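Annex B. Sample input.
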Amino acid sequence: MEVEKITKIVVSAFIIVASPFVLLLIKRFADKIKDDKLRDTIVTFVEAADQMLKKVDPTGEQRKAYVLKALEEVGITNSAYVNALIEQAVLGLWYYEPTTKDEKEV
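Annex B, continued. Sample output.
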C-alpha cells in the first residue's frame, strides 16, 4: 500500500517536472513544420516568377513584386525574414541552374 502511494507521487512529480519540456519540444516541432512550409511556399512562388517573367524582367523587380503579391494573397506578410528567404530561394535558382556546354568547357 505504501509503495503504491510513493509510486503515484513519483510519477506525478515526474509528469509535473517533464510537462514544460515536452510542451517546448512540441512547440519547436510545430514551428519547424511551419517554417518548412513557409520556405516551400516561397520557393514555389520564386520559381514560378522566374519561369514566367525572366525574359521580360532582367532586373528582377517584377519577379519580386509578383512573389510578394502572391505571398500576401496567401496571408504571408512581408518581413526581413521573408525577404531573406526570398533571396535564398533566388540564390537557389542561380546555384542549381543547369550550365551550358560552353560553360562546362571553360
